[in-house]
Each structure stands twice: as structure tokens, then as C-alpha cells.
């Protein structure tokens, strides 16, 4: 580790290295550490090469995004800091070690913490605001300036094709949990191409989005509990703004979290939904048209379904994509998302109503 750290800074005293899970929560893809050395702190990450087979594109995007964000003056009225890429001492965007692993450093935003699940209305409003504010910051960064690092990342029809292929090759035991997932997929795949159709028909346009704005990717100030930053920027790139709004809602309004201990408690909380949307609208200004707002219900339904499908497919394929602590974890994660989809569908009218002005 010392050798890696020395690529990014001069080591004067022995660095203190902590896994970031203890400080800023956890991620399902990359490995992350907080490094403190000689009064300087930064976040060190090893990129998951299986998920990101072309890390150069991820790093090029991060560099483009960093310079875009660094040029912005904060006029938001609250503390706001961006996660910025730090180059190596040799001036490169990342360090490749002898095993071909890719390491990179980003700024550590101090006096902050994360909430993996949202506990208060004020936090929900702040997450919504942070996403809206972030979209406003990205509004003048043309999507064509960024690479698509994960082609088809939020293309639900492609995930369904992939699921169908994996399923046909998987030995399926008879089990009520598997049955439940299969039934949900059959029911919810109806209309799964709704956002893609809107895109092809020109009813929604591709722009620069975050790609993964779940609650745990928002940094909160430890004292004020106000949002300070949106982190985890590997998936920033061309996409539909609805993917982000849907992902943020499915994450914030699921109060039992992605690994809910009691499946019967999983539901989509409408009070939090109101707060997230109010925060989003205040942060994003006039970014959304009325037609965009009209698609918010479908966005959250489809993104929760997409995530459930991705977890379930990965479970059937032998847990190759998402990190797991035990072999049934992706199945459990899928059950949570599919229950959430059912709860979202039951509240269609209310979600549609509060999405509009
Ligand atoms: C993954 O790494 P992490 O935990 O921020 C995933 C997201 C999922 C999320 C669910 C590149 O993000 O799409 O929504 O897990 N990221 C990638 O927790 O697949
Ligand atoms: Mg991520």
C-alpha cells in the first residue's frame, strides 16, 4: 500500500489508511480507503476492472468532469464541495500497478458523513436538492464530451435480454423466493422500454447525468446535516435525467435500505418522496419540463425494477458483478427491490400527482 500511496504524495510520516466503509459508508463495486499522511488526506480507490473494462475512459471522464466542476463558483447559499481527481506525482490520471490494477485518488471532503438510509424529512429534501444542484452544474457540460464508460448501463431492455439468456442456462431450483422474483419480472417487464421509446421519439434527451445518485453517495456536513457533495462519479456520462431521478427516489424512499432485514417492511415512503422531489425541484430550477415531470413515476418504477433485475441476474450467474458477503446476498437484494417495485406501483396515482406542479 505504501508504494501505491507514494505514487500520489510524498510520504513524510507513516500514512494512516482506513477502509472507507468506516468513514463514508460502503460501495458495491470499487475498493476504497481514506489515506491520511503528514496533514494531507485523500481518498484512494482501486477500480473494479471487471465492471469497468476500459478504465482509461472512466479516468478521462473524471478529468473532464473535475475541470468542469472546479471552474464553478459556489452560489448555492450552502457549503458545496466537489470530489476532484488528484493526479499522480508523475502527472498521470491514475497509477497502474504491476498486476495491472488501476489506482486513483480523489479529494477527501472533510467534516462529512454519509447516510446509507435516509432517516429524516430534512435529509430527504437535502438529497433531492443535491441531485438537482448537481444536474444544474452539469447542464453546460455537453454529454458528447464524455465517454460512455458502461455502454447500456441503464438500458432496461438490454438487461432483460441478458436475464433471459442467463435464465435459460441456469439450473433453477423450485423455491418461493425464486418464484416471486420470476413472477415480478414477468409482471413488470411490460412497458420496460418506456424511457427508451421516449428517447427515440425525442420526448426526452440525452444529457450529462450522475448515473448512481443513491442516498449513500451524498456527503452530509457532520454539524449541519446539510448536503455538501455528490460523490462516486465513475458513472457520470451521457444518459437520461430520469435515470438519476428514479435512482435517487428508489434509494431514498426505501427506508429499510437495500439489505432490509425484514422483507415485509420494505415499502416506498411517500412522505420522503415528496421531500426528495421538493428538494430536487428547488435545486434544479427550470431544468425539467412538464413532460419530464410526467415521466417521474415510470422512472422510479423502472429503475427499481432494473436494479432488482440486475441483482437477480447476477445471483443466477454466480455473483460475478456485485460484491457479496454470502452467496444469497444478491437474491436478497433482488427481493428487496422487487417488493419496492410493487409498493411503487400501488402508489402510482399519488406519485404522478406530486410529480406535477
Ligand atoms: C452499485 O458501487 P456502488 O455501490 O456505488 C452500482 C449501481 C447500483 C448500486 C446499488 C457501476 O453502485 O448501479 O445502483 O450499486 N454501480 C455500478 O447499491 O454498477
Ligand atoms: Mg458507484
For the structure shown, list the relevant keywords.
globular, single chain, 13 helices, 357 residues, binds 2-acetamido-2-deoxy-1-O-phosphono-alpha-D-glucopyranose, alpha+beta, 6-stranded antiparallel sheet, Aminoglycoside 3'-phosphotransferase, Chain: A, domain 2, Phosphorylase Kinase, domain 1, 3-stranded antiparallel sheet, 2 domains, binds magnesium ion
How would you describe this protein?
The protein has 357 residues and is of the alpha+beta class. The chain folds into two domains: 2-108, 2-Layer Sandwich (Phosphorylase Kinase, domain 1); 121-355, Aminoglycoside phosphotransferase (APH), C-terminal lobe (Aminoglycoside 3'-phosphotransferase, Chain: A, domain 2). Helices cover 44% and strands 13% of the residues. The protein has 13 helices and eleven strands. It has helices spanning 2-8, 21-24, 55-70, 121-138, 156-169, 176-188, 194-200, 241-252, 270-284, 290-293, 296-316, 329-346, 348-355; strands at residues 16-19, 31-37, 40-46, 85-86, 95-96, 102-107, 112-113, 206-209, 218-221, 227-230, 237-240. Strands 1, 2, 3, 4, 5 and 6 form a six-stranded antiparallel beta sheet that branches. Strands 7-9-10 form a three-stranded antiparallel beta sheet, with helices on one face. Strand 9 (218-221) and strand 10 form a beta hairpin. The model has no long low-confidence stretch (mean pLDDT 95). Bound molecules: 2-acetamido-2-deoxy-1-O-phosphono-alpha-D-glucopyranose and magnesium ion (MG).
Amino acid at each position: 500500500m505504501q508504494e501505491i500511496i507514494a505514487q500520489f504524495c510524498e510520504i513524510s510520516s507513516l500514512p494512516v489508511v482506513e477502509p472507507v466503509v468506516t468513514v463514508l459508508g460502503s460501495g458495491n463495486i470499487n475498493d476504497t480507503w481514506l489515506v491520511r499522511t503528514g496533514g494531507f488526506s485523500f481518498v484512494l480507490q482501486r477500480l473494479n476492472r471487471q465492471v469497468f473494462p476500459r478504465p482509461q475512459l472512466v479516468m478521462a471522464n473524471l478529468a473532464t468532469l473535475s475541470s468542469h466542476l472546479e471552474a464553478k463558483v459556489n452560489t448555492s447559499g450552502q457549503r458545496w464541495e466537489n470530489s476532484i481527481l488528484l493526479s499522480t506525482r508523475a502527472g498521470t490520471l491514475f497509477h497502474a500497478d504491476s498486476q495491472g490494477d488501476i489506482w486513483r485518488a480523489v479529494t477527501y471532503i472533510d467534516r462529512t458523513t454519509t447516510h446509507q438510509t435516509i432517516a429524516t424529512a430534512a435529509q430527504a429534501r437535502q438529497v433531492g436538492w443535491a441531485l438537482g444542484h448537481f444536474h444544474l452544474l452539469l447542464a453546460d457540460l455537453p454529454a458528447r464530451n464524455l465517454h460512455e464508460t458502461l455502454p447500456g448501463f441503464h438500458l432496461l431492455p438490454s438487461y432483460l435480454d441478458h436475464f433471459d439468456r442467463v435464465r435459460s442456462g441456469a439450473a433453477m431450483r423450485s423455491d418461493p423466493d425464486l418464484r416471486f422474483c420470476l413472477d415480478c419480472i414477468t409482471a413488470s417487464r411490460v412497458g420496460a422500454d418506456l424511457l427508451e421509446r421516449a428517447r427515440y421519439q425525442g420526448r426526452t434527451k440525452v444529457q450529462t447525468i450522475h448515473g448512481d445518485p443513491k442516498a449513500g453517495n451524498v456527503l452530509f456536513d457532520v454539524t449541519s446535516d446539510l448536503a455538501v457533495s455528490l460523490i462516486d462519479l465513475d458513472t457520470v456520462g451521457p444518459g437520461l435525467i430520469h435515470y438519476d431521478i428514479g435512482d435517487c427516489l428508489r434509494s431514498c424512499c426505501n427506508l429499510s435500505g437495500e439489505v432490509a432485514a425484514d422483507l415485509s417492511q420494505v415499502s416506498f415512503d411517500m412522505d420522503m418522496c415528496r421531500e426528495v422531489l421538493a428538494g430536487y425541484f428547488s435545486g434544479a430550477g427550470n431544468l425539467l419540463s412538464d413532460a419530464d415531470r410526467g415521466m417521474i413515476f415510470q422512472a422510479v418504477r423502472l429503475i427499481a425494477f432494473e436494479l432488482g433485475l440486475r441483482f437477480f441476474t447476477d445471483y443466477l450467474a454466480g455473483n460475478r458483478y456485485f460484491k457479496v458477503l454470502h452467496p444469497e446476498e444478491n437474491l436478497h437484494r433482488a427481493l428487496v427491490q422487487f417488493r419496492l417495485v410493487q409498493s411503487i406501483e400501488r402508489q402510482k396515482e399519488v406519485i404522478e400527482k406530486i410529480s406535477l406542479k
